[in-house]
Write a structure and sequence with these properties.
Elements: E1 17-22, H1 26-37, E2 42-45, E3 61-62, H2 66-70, H3 74-90, E4 95-105, H4 112-126, E5 132-135, H5 136-142, E6 151-162, H6 164-177, E7 181-183, E8 186-194, E9 197-204, E10 210-220, H7 226-230, E11 236-247, E12 256-260, E13 267-273, E14 276-280, E15 284-285, H8 298-311, E16 322-333, E17 348-353, E18 356-361, H9 367-377, H10 383-391, H11 418-431, H12 437-444, H13 447-450, H14 459-470, H15 474-491
Helix pairs in contact: 1-6, 1-9, 9-10, 11-14
């Protein structure tokens, strides 16, 4: 298990590592798992918290991507759907099948029959059949607030929802049970080739302590930061996607509504998530510093409220209804053709320079297949093993049981309270390497975006547990609270 964070000096006692993975998002976690599973001595290092970047700020969907079919990327869709079905089967508490409803309107593309064709192909690639047509009356009965102008009905199909940050933690727990080590708030400052090995200078970002490590293989899975360590010309195009969280009582939905924005016809999702409703996402080039916590702009809030109000006009959503915002920056592999951000492909890229394997781009859903591609590029698996693992629908990714508290992982269950919340917090503080208060409230429990007060009313009850399990004195607790409030004010409100 991940456990609690130990002193940096403890890593030196392990001697040289077979594999060091830099980056604690879903891609790095997947590489660590697949490498450890094959018997390698693996260490994963993350400069901030696990899933701090893109992997805690996605659209929370484990899906094949209907638009990738429309773009002709059948292979990406097939791979994603294969992994979706695997995750649904292996992690039923964390990845849940979800109905998606796409309203069809007179004179608006796509119509019923193009969508029927696409969904037949979509289901065939997944090996299931669960799409169907909903009549106009059926749609109106399910969603009486839906704009009925030109409404003919809707196509209903299924994909899946998850808690992306908790999925990263689950992959890291699996990797730990396979023998891997992981440490957050540990930055790799320099990588130096030494024959067939690498020397890495690493630093604890909290204490400033430094240590030199050695490894045979180094994977740069830092996502947005991949260009900094890759030793090659930049390939990553940072693109920001923002989501809004609204109280479920104000925006009640039980399915994932897939609606087209009236300004640019981009698909936007409105879906239930952990007891509230989420609206997202935007897709714009991110031009701010990558070291800064991203934040949502007023224009993005207006953009998302506009699409929600165009489809659900009776609700009259306003800025005051927004509980929280969440901005994430995706590491898109640039085509170099100046495309609209929404039209860039979502596949990943693996490349090598100075003996370091770099990987960026890709989807949350396909983390296992991205990891396999990275291991093949490093020579840690051969072509036959790679092909078998890629194509094996019945190969398990998760082989260990992790007895986390009831309801903690469920992407549809609301915020816990009382003894249930206490059990969840105690588990997290013991087993999930919490270093700062925002690790707990924003990524492990999600209270920062689900509660109108960002969890402020719960701080008094959390204080004794944090002091007991993390050893914080009163001064450290006050410092952590100030830090947390600053993050919330700057980036989530």
């Amino acid at each position: 298990m991940l456990g609690q964070r130990r002193e940096l000096s403890g890593l030196a006692a392990h001697g040289a590592w077979d594999v060091v993975v830099i980056g604690g998002g879903i891609t790095g976690a997947g590489i660590a798992l697949e490498a450890a599973r094959r018997g390698h001595k693996v260490l994963l290092l993350e400069q901030r918290d696990f899933s701090w970047g893109t992997s805690s700020r996605s659209s929370k969907m484990v899906h094949g991507g209907l638009r990738y079919i429309a773009q002709g990327d059948i292979q990406l869709t097939r791979h994603a759907l294969q992994e979706r079905e695997r995750l649904l089967a292996e992690l039923p508490d964390l990845v849940v099948r979800m109905p998606y409803v796409f309203p069809i309107r007179q004179g608006r593309f796509p119509g019923r029959w193009p969508m029927t064709f696409i969904l037949k192909l979509y289901d065939a690639l997944a090996g299931i059949r669960d799409h169907r047509w909903m009549s106009r009356d059926e749609v109106r009965q399910a969603y009486p607030a839906l704009n009925d102008a030109g409404l003919r009905g809707a196509m209903r199909y299924t994909d899946a929802l998850t808690d992306d940050s908790r999925l990263v933690i689950r992959v890291l727990q699996e990797a730990s049970l396979e023998g891997a080590r992981a440490r957050n708030y540990t930055e790799v400052l320099n990588i130096k080739a030494q024959g067939d090995k690498h020397e890495l200078l690493v630093q604890d970002t909290d204490t400033g302590a430094r240590l030199t490590l050695h490894a045979r293989h180094v994977f740069n899975a830092t996502g947005l930061w991949a260009d900094r360590l890759s030793g090659m010309p930049p390939v990553v195009r940072p693109q920001r996607g923002t989501h809004l969280f609204v109280a479920a009582s104000r925006l009640p939905v039980r399915d994932c509504l897939t609606i087209l924005h009236p300004d640019d016809q981009r698909p936007v999702f409105v879906f239930p998530w952990k007891g509230q409703t989420c609206i997202g996402t935007t897709d714009i080039d991110h031009r701010e510093g990558l070291q800064d916590e991203p934040h949502c702009t007023p224009a993005e809030i207006d953009y998302l409220l506009k699409v929600a109000n165009s489809e659900l006009p009776a609700l009259h959503l306003r800025r005051e209804d927004v509980l929280a915002t969440m901005a994430g920056v995706r590491p898109i592999i640039a085509s170099g053709k100046g495309k609209d951000p929404s039209k860039e492909r979502r596949d990943h890229l693996v490349w090598q320079a100075n003996g370091v394997i770099s990987v960026s781009g890709g989807k949350l859903t396909t983390f296992r297949q991205i990891a396999l591609d990275a291991l093949k590029a490093a020579g840690l698996i051969d072509a036959a093993t790679h092909r078998q693992a890629h194509q094996g629908r019945h190969l398990r990714c998760f082989r260990h049981a992790v007895p986390s508290p009831h309801g903690l992982n469920d992407p549809l269950r609301g915020t816990a309270s009382g003894g249930v919340l206490q059990a969840q917090v105690e588990w997290i503080l013991t087993h999930e390497m919490v270093v700062h208060l925002d690790d707990l409230l924003l990524r492990r429990l999600r209270l920062g975006v689900l509660c109108a007060d960002a969890g402020e009313s719960l701080l008094l009850s959390l204080k004794p547990m944090c002091q007991l399990y993390l050893g914080w004195d009163d001064a450290r607790w006050q410092w952590e609270c100030t830090r947390y409030r600053d993050v919330i004010t700057h980036s989530y409100r």
